[in-house]
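Quick one, C-alpha coordinates below. Sequence please?
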Protein backbone atom coordinates (compact mmCIF):
# COMPACT_ATOMS: atom_id res chain seq x y z
CA UNK A 1 0.00 0.00 0.00
CA UNK A 2 1.55 3.31 -1.01
CA UNK A 3 -1.42 5.64 -0.94
CA UNK A 4 -3.78 6.91 1.71
CA UNK A 5 -6.24 4.37 3.04
CA UNK A 6 -9.95 5.12 2.83
CA UNK A 7 -12.04 5.00 6.02
CA UNK A 8 -13.33 2.88 7.55
CA UNK A 9 -9.75 1.67 8.07
CA UNK A 10 -9.25 -1.77 9.50
CA UNK A 11 -6.69 -2.37 12.24
CA UNK A 12 -3.24 -2.80 10.79
CA UNK A 13 0.41 -2.75 11.82
CA UNK A 14 3.10 -0.51 10.36
CA UNK A 15 6.71 -1.61 10.24
CA UNK A 16 9.23 1.12 10.91
CA UNK A 17 12.55 0.80 9.10
CA UNK A 18 14.91 2.43 11.56
CA UNK A 19 17.92 2.64 9.26
CA UNK A 20 16.36 4.79 6.57
CA UNK A 21 13.18 5.97 8.35
CA UNK A 22 10.73 4.19 6.07
CA UNK A 23 7.26 2.91 6.83
CA UNK A 24 5.65 -0.21 5.44
CA UNK A 25 2.93 0.19 4.38
CA UNK A 26 3.78 3.75 3.42
CA UNK A 27 1.69 6.71 2.31
CA UNK A 28 2.74 10.04 0.85
CA UNK A 29 6.33 11.25 0.85
CA UNK A 30 6.94 14.99 1.06
CA UNK A 31 10.30 16.51 0.10
CA UNK A 32 11.15 20.05 1.18
CA UNK A 33 14.04 21.69 -0.59
CA UNK A 34 15.68 24.95 0.36
CA UNK A 35 13.53 26.75 -2.22
CA UNK A 36 10.43 25.64 -0.29
CA UNK A 37 11.64 27.54 2.79
CA UNK A 38 11.44 31.07 1.37
CA UNK A 39 11.12 33.77 4.01
CA UNK A 40 12.01 31.52 6.92
CA UNK A 41 15.75 32.02 7.47
CA UNK A 42 16.94 35.29 8.96
CA UNK A 43 19.52 35.79 6.19
CA UNK A 44 17.51 35.96 2.95
CA UNK A 45 20.66 36.42 0.85
CA UNK A 46 22.25 33.27 2.27
CA UNK A 47 19.00 31.40 1.63
CA UNK A 48 18.96 32.57 -2.00
CA UNK A 49 22.59 31.48 -2.47
CA UNK A 50 21.75 28.03 -1.12
CA UNK A 51 18.82 27.77 -3.55
CA UNK A 52 21.07 28.79 -6.45
CA UNK A 53 23.79 26.40 -5.26
CA UNK A 54 21.94 23.13 -5.83
CA UNK A 55 18.75 23.78 -3.87
CA UNK A 56 19.47 20.97 -1.36
CA UNK A 57 16.87 18.80 0.28
CA UNK A 58 16.41 20.14 3.83
CA UNK A 59 13.89 17.59 5.07
CA UNK A 60 11.55 14.80 4.06
CA UNK A 61 8.29 13.64 5.61
CA UNK A 62 7.19 10.02 5.15
CA UNK A 63 3.56 9.44 6.10
CA UNK A 64 1.69 6.29 7.02
CA UNK A 65 -1.39 5.46 4.92
CA UNK A 66 -3.71 6.84 7.62
CA UNK A 67 -5.32 9.90 5.98
CA UNK A 68 -5.67 13.39 7.42
CA UNK A 69 -9.40 13.25 8.07
CA UNK A 70 -11.40 13.82 11.27
CA UNK A 71 -11.20 11.15 13.98
CA UNK A 72 -8.24 9.35 12.37
CA UNK A 73 -4.75 9.56 13.89
CA UNK A 74 -2.13 9.96 11.14
CA UNK A 75 1.58 9.46 11.72
CA UNK A 76 4.67 10.59 9.88
CA UNK A 77 8.43 10.40 10.17
CA UNK A 78 10.43 13.52 9.41
CA UNK A 79 14.13 13.49 8.59
CA UNK A 80 15.89 16.85 8.78
CA UNK A 81 19.35 16.94 7.22
CA UNK A 82 22.17 18.60 9.15
CA UNK A 83 23.07 22.03 7.85
CA UNK A 84 23.47 25.72 8.51
CA UNK A 85 22.29 28.76 6.57
CA UNK A 86 24.28 31.77 7.76
CA UNK A 87 24.65 30.10 11.15
CA UNK A 88 20.97 29.16 11.46
CA UNK A 89 20.31 25.45 11.88
CA UNK A 90 18.26 23.75 9.18
CA UNK A 91 14.65 23.34 10.21
CA UNK A 92 11.12 22.58 9.13
CA UNK A 93 8.80 25.31 7.89
CA UNK A 94 6.80 25.17 11.10
CA UNK A 95 3.06 25.39 11.28
CA UNK A 96 0.05 26.08 13.42
CA UNK A 97 -2.96 23.78 13.54
CA UNK A 98 -6.02 25.62 12.16
CA UNK A 99 -8.10 23.30 14.32
CA UNK A 100 -6.19 23.70 17.62
CA UNK A 101 -5.39 20.18 18.73
CA UNK A 102 -2.38 18.62 20.40
CA UNK A 103 0.34 16.48 18.84
CA UNK A 104 3.27 14.37 20.02
CA UNK A 105 6.74 14.01 18.55
CA UNK A 106 9.06 11.12 19.46
CA UNK A 107 12.77 11.50 18.83
CA UNK A 108 14.18 8.57 16.82
CA UNK A 109 17.72 9.49 15.74
CA UNK A 110 20.09 12.39 15.91
CA UNK A 111 19.81 15.52 18.00
CA UNK A 112 17.15 18.10 17.43
CA UNK A 113 14.91 20.59 19.07
CA UNK A 114 11.22 21.37 19.14
CA UNK A 115 10.48 25.08 19.04
CA UNK A 116 7.00 26.07 20.22
CA UNK A 117 5.37 29.50 20.01
CA UNK A 118 1.87 30.54 21.05
CA UNK A 119 2.14 34.06 19.68
CA UNK A 120 3.60 35.45 22.92
CA UNK A 121 5.70 32.80 24.62
CA UNK A 122 8.36 30.63 23.01
CA UNK A 123 9.58 27.31 24.41
CA UNK A 124 12.42 25.02 23.34
CA UNK A 125 12.49 21.27 24.00
CA UNK A 126 15.72 19.33 23.45
CA UNK A 127 14.91 16.24 21.41
CA UNK A 128 16.95 13.06 21.25
CA UNK A 129 16.06 9.39 20.69
CA UNK A 130 13.40 8.28 23.16
CA UNK A 131 12.23 11.77 24.11
CA UNK A 132 8.55 12.59 23.63
CA UNK A 133 7.84 16.25 22.99
CA UNK A 134 4.28 17.34 23.70
CA UNK A 135 2.75 20.10 21.58
CA UNK A 136 -0.26 21.56 23.38
CA UNK A 137 -3.22 22.90 21.38
CA UNK A 138 -2.62 26.45 20.15
CA UNK A 139 1.18 26.28 19.98
CA UNK A 140 2.84 26.62 16.56
CA UNK A 141 5.72 24.16 16.20
CA UNK A 142 8.94 23.81 14.25
CA UNK A 143 11.63 21.14 14.42
CA UNK A 144 15.33 21.93 14.12
CA UNK A 145 18.37 19.72 13.54
CA UNK A 146 21.05 20.96 15.94
CA UNK A 147 23.44 18.05 15.34
CA UNK A 148 25.83 16.83 12.69
CA UNK A 149 23.76 13.86 11.51
CA UNK A 150 20.15 13.54 10.26
CA UNK A 151 17.58 14.22 12.98
CA UNK A 152 14.55 11.93 12.75
CA UNK A 153 11.30 12.00 14.69
CA UNK A 154 7.89 10.40 14.66
CA UNK A 155 4.82 12.68 14.72
CA UNK A 156 1.36 11.53 15.74
CA UNK A 157 -1.47 14.04 15.29
CA UNK A 158 -5.25 14.31 14.94
CA UNK A 159 -6.38 13.97 11.36
CA UNK A 160 -8.46 17.15 11.50
CA UNK A 161 -5.68 19.40 12.88
CA UNK A 162 -4.46 20.70 9.51
CA UNK A 163 -1.29 22.69 8.69
CA UNK A 164 -1.22 26.50 8.56
CA UNK A 165 2.24 27.49 7.32
CA UNK A 166 1.24 31.12 6.74
CA UNK A 167 0.80 31.65 10.47
CA UNK A 168 4.55 31.25 10.96
CA UNK A 169 5.38 33.67 8.14
CA UNK A 170 3.05 36.22 9.75
CA UNK A 171 3.89 35.75 13.42
CA UNK A 172 7.36 34.21 13.44
CA UNK A 173 8.39 31.56 15.96
CA UNK A 174 9.63 33.67 18.88
CA UNK A 175 13.19 32.31 18.72
CA UNK A 176 15.80 31.28 16.18
CA UNK A 177 18.23 28.40 16.66
CA UNK A 178 21.76 29.33 15.68
CA UNK A 179 25.19 27.77 16.08
CA UNK A 180 27.28 30.14 18.16
CA UNK A 181 30.25 31.30 16.10
CA UNK A 182 32.68 31.11 19.01
CA UNK A 183 31.71 27.96 20.93
CA UNK A 184 29.73 26.06 18.30
CA UNK A 185 26.97 25.53 20.85
CA UNK A 186 23.26 26.02 20.29
CA UNK A 187 22.36 29.67 20.70
CA UNK A 188 18.68 30.60 20.88
CA UNK A 189 18.21 34.22 19.89
CA UNK A 190 15.11 36.43 19.72
CA UNK A 191 13.34 35.97 16.41
CA UNK A 192 14.05 39.49 15.16
CA UNK A 193 17.82 39.29 15.73
CA UNK A 194 19.50 40.39 12.49
CA UNK A 195 21.40 37.65 10.69
CA UNK A 196 25.00 37.33 11.73
CA UNK A 197 24.55 38.99 15.13
CA UNK A 198 24.91 36.80 18.17
CA UNK A 199 23.66 37.10 21.66
CA UNK A 200 25.59 35.26 24.31
CA UNK A 201 23.87 32.76 26.58
CA UNK A 202 20.49 31.14 26.30
CA UNK A 203 17.07 32.51 27.16
FE1 LIG B 1 1.52 19.75 13.71
Amino acid sequence: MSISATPPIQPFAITFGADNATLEPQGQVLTRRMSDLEGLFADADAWARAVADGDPVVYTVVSSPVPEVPRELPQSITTIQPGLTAGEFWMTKGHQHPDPQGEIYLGLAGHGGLLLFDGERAEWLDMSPGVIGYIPPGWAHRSVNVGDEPYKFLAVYPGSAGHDYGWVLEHGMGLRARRAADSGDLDLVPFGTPAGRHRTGKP
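The chain has two helices and 15 strands. The longest strand covers residues 57-63.
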